[in-house]
Design brief:
The chain has two helices and 30 strands. Helix content is about 0%, strand content about 55%.
Length: about 325
């Protein structure tokens, strides 16, 4: 393991228990959402100075955020009241919210955005015997252009767009299924073009490249599937199994695909050893895990869970967000 050093950090100042739920890299710096219902933007060189922006969201309970346009620092948030907000973090706090969508009344459990497709997508929890996927075109009316109610039978826990085709969408659910959609199709009976049965509740899923996806279950089982390959059973092309055993960890925070499609980084944590390691998953002739050259965050967020992590490659910096109310910056020594 190659250890990084924690060079900066910021803790949300509160007497209450607050989690930093997620973190995402933007041009202006890392943005976080936290369980005190706030969306915050930080200077990547001065975390300890506190947020550049600290915006109170109005979603009942803030559940998720996704980057709409990283270069222009535009982010979307959503929550339990079903609403979705778009924020331009270049603006002052009073003008930061530029779009608010309120046409959904079900709690939002997942979110995806595509600036090239002008699209915002939410997945909802199962309520009234249905879990929904709603798609908005942000250029048009606040009414969703598509509303699918039969594609999953339980909470929709993950949504991601294809890396090069903004019409293709992936979803994952606690029903164990990962679906691939052509969002140009309005007919719900025709919109799903492929389905993979992971066999366990989906925690994370996304495209690794144009033709391959990963699925990670809530019980930390990881498998890869080929969208381009015709397999009658939809079987996994690579099945890694329980990552807790493979990586000697207690949980997987996330699997972050590389932008060039050459692999992904798996973030694995331990409570009792107060550690967090990042492992590269790369593809030669076959997909493989590099367990001998991991990058570690010693001490991590003490015994608390690391919710997510992100990179600023040019600055050689990793940022992590945890359930200890901290956001931390890590660099090589």
């Amino acid at each position: 393991m190659y250890p990084l050093t924690c060079v900066d950090g910021y803790k949300i100042p509160t007497r209450e228990v607050v989690y930093v739920i997620d973190i995402a890299p933007l041009a202006r710096g890392p943005a976080t959402i936290s369980s005190d219902q706030k969306l915050s933007l930080f200077d990547p060189t001065r975390l300890s100075s506190g947020p550049l922006l600290n915006l109170v969201t109005e979603h009942g309970n803030l559940t998720c955020a996704r980057v709409y346009d990283a270069g222009n620092s535009i982010v979307c948030t959503a929550g339990d009241d079903g609403s979705v907000s778009m924020w331009d973090l270049r603006n002052d706090p009073f003008q930061a919210q530029v779009v608010r969508l309120t046409d959904n009344r079900y709690p939002v459990s997942s979110l995806a955005c595509s600036s090239t497709g002008f699209s915002i997508v939410v997945g909802t929890e199962l309520q009234d015997y249905q879990a929904s996927i709603l798609i908005w075109d942000v250029r048009s009316t606040p009414t969703p252009k598509h509303h699918y109610v039969e594609v999953h039978s339980d909470d929709v826990t993950e949504l991601n767009f294809h890396p090069s085709d903004h019409n293709i969408l992936l979803s994952g659910s606690t029903d164990g299924l990962v679906n691939i959609y052509d969002t140009r199709v309005a007919d719900e009976d025709e919109v799903v073009i492929q389905t993979f049965n992971h066999g366990a509740s989906i925690h994370h899923a996304a495209f690794l490249n144009d033709t391959e996806i990963f699925a990670l279950s809530h019980d930390e089982k990881l498998a890869l599937y080929d969208v381009a390959e015709s397999r009658e059973t939809g079987a996994a092309t690579t099945n890694f199994g329980d990552m807790r055993e493979i990586l000697n960890c207690q949980y997987i925070a996330n699997v972050i695909p590389k932008a060039d499609g050459a692999g992904a980084v798996i973030g694995a944590g331990t409570h009792d050893r107060q550690g967090f390691e990042m492992f590269h998953m790369t593809k030669g002739q076959e997909w493989a895990l590099d367990r001998d050259n991991s990058v570690g965050l010693p001490g991590a967020h003490s015994s608390e869970i690391v919710r997510n992590f992100c990179f600023y490659d040019e600055a050689h910096t990793v940022f992590s967000a945890g359930e200890d109310a901290y956001i931390k910056a890590w660099r090589p020594t």
